[in-house]
Design goal:
37% helix; single chain; alpha/beta; 5-stranded mixed sheet; Lysozyme-like; Muramoyl-pentapeptide Carboxypeptidase, domain 1
């Protein structure tokens, strides 16, 4: 019958399954025999370099003075987005950007702020991008990045001129937190006042943050960052007013820290730098990128205060004043005062 069982034939050729079982049995026997030898070999491996019983002692009593801190600069940004979106962007591996800290724009229900540390200060955060300050390029590796939640300006203002954009202000209690956090960072790393900068300062023309409404003078009054002395500004404005020497202006901007072309021409790249400088130090005066006596006097005052540039002699000041008021003086229109909206 077709379905009748046939007697087993133990003398038939071995099936593939029997071959597999025989090979597995042989392999198991081999491993059992070799295991003691493998264990003995493992016990004689050289110790790890991190093991406590290494053959050397580390002496840190002799230190070289030829060194400097890794962190030189604190860069302040605005997020241009609400908090939740900013956190998503800054932690999304596909976006490739980050920051050490994010400061919200509102406090929790108890009145305290929750500041988010996204990257340890010992690690590099990708916050500044293509950047430069005081001759150093790509400063992510030597800076701390702080993102401050602020919209900047609305999308409807994207195409408006810089001084016509409707900027968002920073709440006072948010700035209090920024000052507290920045003070600890500056103290911890010994960051110089002229190295507390905005994203626009290190990437002029590419970035605008933290914008013209960021209260840099408030930070200075709290011991953070740079700000000129009013009397020094008045001296330079009255005795050494800007006389239209673009090459000299470019050299001064570069000396202070800005990545400025040295063309002798008021080109677009130079105008971008002036806009960034004015947003930081002259926002209540103008930030349209046009150099004038007030702008350059502020720059001169900063150079004297933070870069130890000596004040010119009385004779040099008199010649400069004469050049600024002579027939080749800049057009008065270039010195007009504008107030931000």
């Amino acid at each position: 019958m077709r379905n009748a069982q046939q007697p087993a034939n133990h003398d038939a050729q071995p099936t593939p399954r029997r071959d597999f079982l025989r090979q597995a049995t042989t392999l198991a026997a081999t491993l059992t025999t070799a295991l003691p030898a493998l264990q003995a070999s493992a016990l004689t491996l050289p110790p790890s370099p991190d093991a406590p019983d290494h053959d050397f002692d580390l002496d840190t009593s002799i230190l070289s003075e030829n060194r400097e801190p890794r962190v030189h600069t604190l860069v302040l940004h605005y997020t241009a987005t609400p908090l939740a979106q900013a956190l998503d962007i800054l932690t999304n591996p596909k976006r490739g950007v980050s920051a050490h800290y994010v400061v919200p724009d509102t406090a929790q229900s108890g009145g305290r702020f929750t500041v988010y540390q996204l990257v340890p200060e010992s690690d590099l955060a990708h916050h500044a991008g293509v950047s430069a300050w005081l001759g150093e390029r790509l400063i992510n590796g030597t800076s701390i990045g702080m993102e401050i939640v602020n919209i900047g300006f609305g999308p409807e203002d994207n195409r408006r001129p810089l001084m016509e954009k409707r900027w968002y202000a920073y709440p006072d209690n948010q700035i209090d937190v920024v000052c507290q956090l920045a003070a600890t960072i500056v103290q911890r790393h010994g960051i110089a006042p002229n190295r507390v900068v905005g994203h626009a300062d290190v990437a002029p023309g590419r970035k605008l943050d933290p914008g013209p409404l960021f209260p840099w003078q408030t930070l200075y009054e709290r011991g953070i960052g740079a700000w000129p002395e009013a009397a020094t500004v008045a001296f330079y404005r009255d005795h050494m007013p800007y006389a239209g020497d673009v090459a000299a202006l470019q050299a001064k901007l570069r000396t202070y820290g800005y990545d400025t072309p040295q063309t002798g021409q008021l080109d677009r790249a130079t105008t971008n730098v002036i806009e960034s400088f004015q947003m930081h130090f002259c926002a209540s005066h103008r930030y349209d990128g046009v150099p004038d006596a007030q702008t350059v006097a502020v720059l001169d005052a900063l150079l004297e205060k933070y870069l130890d540039v000596p004040r010119p002699s009385a004779d040099v000041a008199a010649k400069s004043r004469s050049a600024a008021t002579g027939p080749n003086a800049p057009d008065d229109a270039a010195s007009a005062i504008y107030l931000h909206p």
